[in-house]
UniProtKB/TrEMBL annotation:
<dbReference type="InterPro" id="IPR011989">
    <property type="entry name" value="ARM-like"/>
</dbReference>
<feature type="domain" description="Serine/threonine-protein phosphatase 4 regulatory subunit 3-like central">
    <location>
        <begin position="152"/>
        <end position="657"/>
    </location>
</feature>
<dbReference type="GO" id="GO:0030289">
    <property type="term" value="C:protein phosphatase 4 complex"/>
</dbReference>
<dbReference type="InterPro" id="IPR016024">
    <property type="entry name" value="ARM-type_fold"/>
</dbReference>
<feature type="compositionally biased region" description="Low complexity">
    <location>
        <begin position="751"/>
        <end position="773"/>
    </location>
</feature>
<feature type="domain" description="PP4R3 EVH1-like">
    <location>
        <begin position="13"/>
        <end position="115"/>
    </location>
</feature>
<dbReference type="InterPro" id="IPR051137">
    <property type="entry name" value="PP4R3-like"/>
</dbReference>
<feature type="compositionally biased region" description="Acidic residues">
    <location>
        <begin position="694"/>
        <end position="711"/>
    </location>
</feature>
<dbReference type="Pfam" id="PF22972">
    <property type="entry name" value="EVH1_PP4R3"/>
</dbReference>
<dbReference type="GO" id="GO:0006974">
    <property type="term" value="P:DNA damage response"/>
</dbReference>
<dbReference type="Pfam" id="PF04802">
    <property type="entry name" value="PP4R3"/>
</dbReference>
<feature type="compositionally biased region" description="Acidic residues">
    <location>
        <begin position="736"/>
        <end position="745"/>
    </location>
</feature>
<protein>
    <submittedName>
        <fullName>Component of IIS longevity pathway SMK-1-domain-containing protein</fullName>
    </submittedName>
</protein>
<dbReference type="GO" id="GO:0072542">
    <property type="term" value="F:protein phosphatase activator activity"/>
</dbReference>
<keyword id="KW-0539">Nucleus</keyword>
<dbReference type="InterPro" id="IPR055236">
    <property type="entry name" value="EVH1_PP4R3"/>
</dbReference>
<dbReference type="GO" id="GO:0005654">
    <property type="term" value="C:nucleoplasm"/>
</dbReference>
Length: 854
């Protein structure tokens, strides 16, 4: 892509917005540049017209209207001209950016209409000059002499206050080469040691540059004028006792270095011009620069840089000579260093160009051996070369990390040391913290598997959490088999080398580290957290095999608070995975003992360490990780009691104590679609799909101590509504369901399995008062019990309690519930509710129904 030139709009064109009245609303037709002039028609005659060219597409006209002698134009306010098109009657309006532009167009329209109304006939060639739109007034600047500097400064200040004056001043300066005439005055004033004249020359140069004209700025930084311009700007009147050294800096030819000779003269000239523009923007004019001039300077720099890069990447001979320096054994180290810095500048410029051009540049660099250049720079003794190589690598990774990965795959196939090994070596020995940070980011990006591969290795129950953003992996494309093989080899060969400083802590008791060592541990633990989130299976084995958890726990003994925070964040990342492997690993290593010690010391202070620690325990409580809750309370109760004034730790203790360690497994409440599809219909009998495990079966079959202590009188008093006394030792016959019994049973037939006559007699005496009302009460009680069981079935679990540790309320409640269920046979067979109607009740003689244990 070739660079587009900076647009130079004609000074007689005024920036304007075009509006059209549609349905009583002004419609914006676009922004452009307006000019009024005499345009030759097809017949060869000149017609006065107002024309607006589009700002975005200069070849497209937003407006072209002919000026008639009728008084259809009106000027409103200072920047608005409205009229009605005589052909179609549409109302139009021009809104000018500057009032001077509106005045110039209005004067032209008024002059044309005045000429037509005074019977000047057709507007012919003889009148064209008189009717032309008023352009910038012609000005005459005083002669460029030391004695006229005061008048020159005053004239430029006055003319620079208006748009027309600025345009006229710009034309005059360029037409008369006024800058070239002022430059000799600088040396004359210096010879005369006239500080006042030098200050005036500085103000004049500032005024000329701040006219914000690209042609003036390009002329000012040309080879002929640049030293004289910056020489005048050295004498700033705001700092009368100081003098800058701009000429000495720019005139130093030694600052321009050609690693490989650039033969194209135009490219060399643009390189020099770009350097001067950057110096002018960043140093000379940094204090007085306004936004328009700043924008113009940036535009000139950008387009020059694009042209330079396009020329260099298209020059195959130049690239061959450039990268051939690193293959030449006779090349000195300084040349190679300069080549690294030159490539770094090219990559920095490439960040601002279009992606296709940037991709072509990187492809050309990689094909010529860019990776060897990066490896050379990373191992260089000079920090500038290491920074340069790191910048090159980061620039390419930010653009396309797969490009570097493919190169690493090729190195692996050729049994060459991969680039990642060089990055690891530099990370462990680098003293520059900025370079460390960039290298750690580069390692993480290169070893990023991508979201799809990550989810394939994650447990199924966490894939939805990852999709919701709980696991912060980079949204990269799915890793290919080459990436998987690369990861395996990395964990086999390079991971141990990367985390060797952590594993070496095993034999170290002193946790005082230097600044470089502490920062290294910080980056290593951060990389380790990233690996755990991204490389599920591989990272688990590595963490367990190298005892990484215990080594990170040693950092909690460091006096540096930020290292303790790094360790806390690592354990929080492991717990956040909610994997049984990591949770059991943490409990086996008894990691919470040093963690709670750190928390006890830091919790009284409002800092990041205490906040991160408290958030970790809050997460355990909120997610109800039962293994961790049980481990914490059973092994660290005293420490938790000391912290129980905080709600988080108090609720952890209460949760364990209320459930005696059998915490609720929240996963049972999270039904998948398959599980919800297997649920029984809501109107099916609930006892038919309750399954009981053997331990609970045995518990329900045993008797309660309170039942053994009860007297026969109390047993006789315990009845369920009107259903007669409890008979827990006699099993019931399995009857058909209530629905079948209500619809199909013969009321006069004796049901099989009726109770003994003695039981019937007791039922008769107990229910002689009013059988119909007692039957209704029985029905209501059964419905209430079914509602209670429906709630239990929705939770898919019954809370179990131990007989020794439960409260009196829980014991009595569970005892009553036992009396509501029939004894289980222990084989897990479905249970049914059985109802027995006595003959006396059927005949209306007042015999009561007997209900067994339900």
């Amino acid at each position: 892509m070739m660079a587009q030139p900076v647009p130079h709009h004609a000074t007689d064109k005024k920036r304007v917005k075009v509006y059209e009245l549609r349905n009583n609303d002004w419609f914006d037709r676009g922004t452009g540049f307006c000019m009024a002039n005499l345009v030759q028609n097809a017949e060869g005659r000149k017609e006065p017209k107002v024309i607006v060219e589009s700002e975005d597409q200069p070849e497209r006209l937003l407006l072209e209207t002919k000026i008639h002698k009728e008084d259809m134009f009106q000027k409103q306010q200072e920047t608005l001209i409205v009229w009605t098109e005589p052909v179609n009657g549409i109302d139009m309006a021009l809104s000018f950016q500057e009032s001077e532009g509106c005045s110039a167009i209005w004067r032209f329209v008024s002059n044309v209409q005045h000429a037509l109304q005074n019977n000047l006939g057709g507007v012919d060639d003889t009148l064209s000059e008189d009717l032309a739109m008023d352009g910038p007034p012609a000005i005459n600047l005083p002669a460029a002499e030391l004695g006229n500097l005061s008048d020159i400064e005053t004239s430029m200040r006055i003319m620079g206050s208006t748009v027309n004056g600025r345009e006229a001043l710009t034309k005059t300066i360029m037409a008369e080469d006024y800058i070239g005439k002022l430059i000799p005055l600088v040396e004359m004033a210096e010879d005369l040691e006239s500080l006042q004249d030098l200050h005036r020359l500085c103000n004049i140069m500032k005024s000329i540059i701040l006219l914000n004209d690209t042609s003036i700025i390009e002329h000012a930084v040309s080879d002929e004028c640049v030293l004289g311009v910056v020489g005048a700007l050295e004498y700033d009147p705001d700092f009368p006792s100081h003098k800058a050294n701009h000429r000495h800096w720019l005139d130093n030819k030694g600052r321009y270095k050609e690693v490989v000779p650039i033969e194209d003269e135009g490219t060399r000239r643009k390189i020099h011009q770009t350097y001067r523009l950057q110096y002018l923007k960043d140093v000379v004019l940094a204090r007085i620069l306004d936004d328009p001039t700043f924008s113009v300077l940036n535009s000139l720099i950008f387009f020059n840089q694009v042209d330079i890069v396009q020329h260099l990447q298209g020059n195959a001979r130049f690239l061959k000579d450039l990268f051939g320096i690193f293959a030449d054994p006779d090349a000195d180290a300084s040349s190679k260093k300069e080549a690294v810095l030159f490539i770094q500048q090219c990559c920095a410029i490439a960040k601002n160009i279009q992606p296709p051009s940037r991709q072509n540049l990187y492809n050309n660099f990689v094909s010529h051996g860019l990776l060897q250049v990066i490896i050379y720079g990373l191992k260089h003794s000079d920090v500038a070369a290491r920074v340069g190589a790191t910048d090159i690598l980061i620039s390419i990774i930010d653009h396309d990390p797969q490009m570097i990965r493919q190169t690493i795959y090729r190195q692996m196939n050729e049994n060459q040391p991969p680039l990642t090994d060089s990055l690891i070596e530099l990370l462990l020995v680098e003293v520059d913290l900025g370079v460390k940070s960039q290298i750690s980011e580069a390692i993480k990006v290169l070893l990023d598997q991508g979201m799809m591969m990550q989810q394939q290795q994650m447990p199924e129950k966490f894939q939805q959490a990852a999709a919701n953003g709980d696991f912060h992996g980079r949204p990269r494309p799915q890793a290919d088999p080459q990436q998987e093989l690369f990861l395996q080899q990395f964990y086999e060969r390079s991971a141990a080398k990367l985390f060797k400083p952590l594993t070496d802590l095993e034999n170290r008791s002193d946790m005082h580290f230097s600044v470089q060592q502490a920062s290294m541990f910080s980056y290593l633990v951060e990389i380790l957290c990233f690996f755990i989130r991204q490389h599920h299976a591989l990272s688990r084995y590595f963490v367990m095999n190298n005892d990484i958890v215990a080594r990170v726990a040693q950092l909690l003994q460091s006096p540096e608070k930020f290292l303790q925070l790094v360790a806390i964040r690592f354990f929080r990342a492991l717990i956040g995975m909610q994997e049984e492997f990591f949770i059991n690993h943490l409990t086996d290593k008894r990691i919470f003992d040093p963690i709670l010690q750190v928390v006890s010391k830091a919790i009284s202070r409002d800092n990041l360490l205490s906040s991160a620690s408290l958030e970790m325990f809050e997460f355990i409580k909120k997610e109800n990780i039962k293994n961790l809750v049980k481990h914490l309370v059973e092994n660290h109760r005293e420490q938790l009691l000391d912290l129980s004034y905080l709600q988080t730790f108090r609720e952890l203790l209460q949760r364990y104590d209320h459930t005696q360690g059998y915490t609720i497994n929240m996963e049972l409440f999270l039904e998948t679609d398959d599980e919800s599809g297997r649920r029984q219909p809501p109107n099916s009998r609930m006892m038919e799909h309750i399954s009981m495990d053997p331990a609970e079966e045995e518990y329900w079959n045993t008797s309660d101590p309170e039942d053994d202590d009860e007297s026969p009188e109390r047993i006789g008093q315990k009845t369920l509504g009107s259903n007669g006394p409890m008979t827990p030792t006699k099993p019931l016959v399995d009857y058909p369901s209530d629905e079948e019994g209500d619809e199909n049973a013969d009321p006069n037939a004796r049901l099989p399995g009726d109770l003994s006559p003695s039981s019937e007699g007791s039922d008769s005496s107990a229910s002689a008062g009013g059988p119909p009302e007692r039957i209704a009460e029985k029905r209501r009680r059964e419905e209430d019990e079914e509602d209670e069981m429906d709630k239990l079935m929705q939770n898919k679990r019954r809370n179990s309690t131990s007989s020794s540790g439960s409260s009196a309320t829980v014991s009595s409640s569970m005892g009553r519930r036992r009396k509501s269920f029939s004894p289980s046979s222990g084989n897990g067979a479905p249970k049914k509710i059985a109802i027995s109607l006595s003959p006396a009740l059927k005949s209306g003689a007042g015999d009561a129904r007997t209900d067994g244990d339900a």
